[in-house]
């Protein structure tokens, strides 16, 4: 029988506040996400269109260059539509990046049964998801609003006309539109990755979650002769939102126009579904399906 | 310090995973020291540990660890260290980073976390060079050590270790067991589940036997063995004349078996009445025909109790 000396002293030093703990997991997540060469390649690929767009802005704003290269053609106009196209391009690259990164953040932990160890710390399941969310959202920011804002700032600087003051609203639209897409992608990415432990399948499943409902919506429209099936088409819904936020002409004709409320409800429901999946799957024990 | 804040308590605790029974109606009180959970696979040991560490909530009943509830996450988890049975780590980290980040999840400053991580890795005897290599390149034993370091690093008062000896070589096992024993002596709660009963037996103050989600027995190993009255107790008597002793023991009714030890310097006796056995042994000693050197129970260990109460070979649980 042991003789209990009771001389064991627990740690009694100062501790940081609870809200800072998910940042440790976010740091883990960033290291995990960017530790892959493929992430770097995807990141570089996502920035290549920005280089092309930067050249286009330069050509549009520099009369000499426009004269030499475009022979004075007025086809290149930098306006709201131009930035919607830039934002769209970057946001679809963000989908590819999210499909690659999200499974690395969650599927590995689930596959390795690392959750019991992580959740036996003073961090909740919400804190865990928040940490991963921050890592993913920050990673996606590198290819969405950050480069697009840089292009906007360059356009404001390079434009020979008083362009900036008339287009300040674009900055708001770019940031809000990007963040909305980042939130949607991050939630879908984390939910799919928590459901599918095999990373490659999780990557594919993420594309399926975005594009399969679009097909279902198209079929619904054709059968019921309605246009409400477009609400299941995430690419269309998001493009419409970006256009409205940036003040560009709408994508669809007025009779096919989707109300803001309907689009907001669809995104909200999608988000809630993802949260429900995360709630079911992110557990400190093996979750047995069925 | 009162009893409630110094014990781990389960009050009529049940845990169901849907229709699957984890544990049922467990009432248990664990004092400081080393406690071994013994039971076959799927018996509910890990569920019991998960309840203790706040990783799962009971379906019924109440769990309290040193008077703390898991709902009070900050204080609760700072007092509990957990080493999971899974060989699982966040990827891409070195052993040192893993322990350091674990400490930062407990809310410690960089400086404190650094000092405690070094201390914990020294405690489990993982050398500094290895600690700064990626865990992915570690041997199974080194991974086990890092997990253990992570569990003890923040100075918890309760240490819950699920299969902590798996993958360790004999030397590392001995070192780990010495560490558990030392922590138990210092007044810490060390709760271990292990399949290597012979080894944990030596450091355990008490055993908790569980099978099919039900608590079978609990308490000091020797006391539990005494309670198993339907199984004759086996004792080893070291003496100078084991053949004579065996023949004398065969003459009494309660002795059901007497077998010579392989080295010829002792006899195993299986008796249904220990008190009677000791009385007769005293008489034999007084007669002076046999010189008794030592008497020791041979089956009051976790492995034997496991076999008696649960009915399979403890070493292959």
Structure characterization notes:
The complex is a heterodimer of chains A (290) and B (317). By secondary structure, chain A is mainly α. Chain A has one domain (19-281). Chain A contains eleven helices and no strands. Chain A is globular and about 80 Å long. Chain B has helices spanning 45-52, 73-78, 95-105, 110-123, 128-131, 140-152, 170-185, 197-203, 221-227, 242-250, 274-287, 302-309, and strands at 8-17, 20-30, 33-38, 60-65, 80-83, 158-162, 189-193, 206-211, 214-219, 233-239, 255-260, 266-271, 292-297. Chain B folds into two domains: 4-223, P-loop containing nucleotide triphosphate hydrolases (Rossmann fold); 227-306, Alpha-Beta Plaits. In chain B, helix 3 (95-105) crosses helix 4 (110-123), helix 3 packs parallel to helix 6 (140-152) and helix 4 (110-123) crosses helix 6. Residues 313-317 of chain B have low confidence and may be disordered. In chain B, the strands form three sheets. A six-stranded mixed sheet of chain B has the order 5-6-7-3-8-9, sandwiched between helices. Chain B has a four-stranded antiparallel sheet with strand order 11-12-10-13, with helices on one face. By secondary structure, chain B is an alpha/beta fold. Classes of the chains: A mainly alpha (290), B alpha/beta (317). The interface between A and B is large, with 43 and 55 residues.
Summarize the structure.
Chain A has about 290 residues and is mostly helical.
Name the helicity range of chain A. Answer: over 70%
The number of helical runs of chain B is: 12
Number of separate structural domains of chain B? 2
Outline the biggest β-sheet of chain A: none
Give, in order, the helices and strands of chain B: EEEHEHEHHHHEHEHEEHEHEEHEH
What is the percent of helical residues of chain B? 25-40%
CATH structural class of the largest domain in chain B: Alpha Beta
Give the total of beta strands of chain B: 13
**What's the overall average pLDDT of chain A, rounded?**
87
Overall structural domain count of chain A? 1
What is the CA-based Rg of chain B, rounded?
A: 23 Å
Main sheet summary of chain B: 6 strands, mixed
Q: Globular, elongated, flat, extended or rod-shaped: what is the shape of chain A?
A: globular
């Amino acid at each position: 029988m042991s003789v209990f000396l009771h001389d064991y002293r627990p740690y009694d030093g100062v501790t940081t506040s609870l809200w800072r703990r998910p940042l440790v997991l976010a740091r883990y997540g960033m290291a995990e996400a960017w530790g892959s060469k493929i992430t770097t390649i995807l990141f570089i690929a996502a920035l290549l269109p920005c280089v092309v767009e930067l050249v286009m802005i330069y050509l549009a704003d520099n009369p000499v260059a426009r004269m030499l290269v475009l022979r004075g053609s007025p086809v290149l106009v930098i306006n709201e539509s131009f930035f919607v196209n830039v934002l769209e391009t970057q946001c679809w690259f963000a989908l590819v990046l999210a499909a690659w990164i999200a499974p690395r953040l969650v599927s590995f932990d689930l596959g390795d049964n690392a959750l019991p160890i992580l959740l036996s710390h003073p961090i909740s399941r919400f804190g865990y998801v928040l940490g991963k969310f921050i890592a993913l959202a920050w990673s996606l920011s590198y290819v969405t609003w950050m480069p697009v804002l840089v292009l906007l700032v360059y356009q404001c600087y390079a434009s020979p006309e008083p362009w900036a003051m008339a287009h300040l609203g674009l900055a708001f639209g770019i940031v809000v539109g990007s963040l909305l897409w980042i939130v949607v992608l991050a939630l879908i990415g984390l939910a799919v990755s928590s459901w599918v432990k095999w990373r490659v399948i999780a990557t594919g499943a993420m594309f399926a979650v975005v594009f399969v409902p679009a097909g279902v919506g198209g079929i619904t429209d054709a059968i019921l002769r309605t246009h409400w099936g477009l609400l299941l088409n995430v690419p269309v819904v998001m493009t419409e939102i970006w256009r409205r936020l940036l003040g560009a002409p709408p994508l669809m004709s007025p009779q096919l126009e989707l109300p803001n409320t309907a689009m907001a409800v669809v995104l909200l429901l999608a988000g809630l579904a993802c949260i429900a999946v995360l709630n079911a799957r992110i557990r400190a024990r093996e979750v047995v399906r069925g | 310090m009162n009893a409630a804040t110094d014990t781990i308590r389960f009050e009529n605790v049940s845990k169901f995973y849907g229709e699957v029974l984890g544990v049922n109606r467990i009432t248990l009180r664990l004092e400081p020291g080393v406690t071994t959970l013994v039971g076959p696979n799927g018996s509910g040991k890990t569920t019991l540990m998960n309840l203790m560490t706040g990783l799962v909530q009971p379906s019924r009943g109440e769990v309290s660890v040193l008077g703390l509830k898991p709902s009070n996450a900050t204080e609760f988890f700072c007092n509990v260290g957990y080493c999971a049975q899974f060989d699982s780590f966040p990827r891409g980290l070195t052993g040192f980073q893993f322990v350091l980040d674990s400490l930062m999840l407990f809310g410690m400053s960089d400086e404190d976390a650094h000092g405690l991580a070094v201390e914990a890795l020294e405690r489990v005897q993982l050398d500094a060079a290895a600690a700064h290599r990626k865990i992915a390149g570690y041997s199974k034993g080194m991974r086990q050590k890092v997990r253990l370091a992570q569990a003890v690093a923040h100075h918890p008062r309760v240490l819950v270790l699920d299969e902590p000896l798996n993958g360790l070589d004999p030397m590392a096992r001995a070192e780990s067991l010495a560490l558990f024993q030392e922590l138990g002596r210092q007044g810490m709660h060390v709760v271990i589940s292990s399949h290597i009963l012979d080894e944990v037996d030596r450091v355990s103050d008490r055993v908790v036997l569980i099978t099919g989600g039900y608590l079978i027995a609990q308490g000091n190993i020797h006391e539990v063995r005494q309670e198993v009255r339907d199984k004759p107790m086996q004792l080893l008597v070291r003496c100078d004349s084991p053949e004579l002793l065996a023949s004398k023991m065969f003459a009494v009714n309660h002795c059901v078996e007497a077998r010579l030890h392989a080295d010829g310097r002792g006899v195993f006796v299986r008796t249904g009445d220990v008190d009677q056995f000791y009385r007769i042994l005293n008489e034999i000693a007084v007669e002076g025909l046999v010189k008794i050197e030592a008497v020791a129970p041979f089956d009051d260990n976790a492995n034997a109790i496991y076999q008696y109460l649960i009915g399979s070979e403890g070493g292959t649980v």
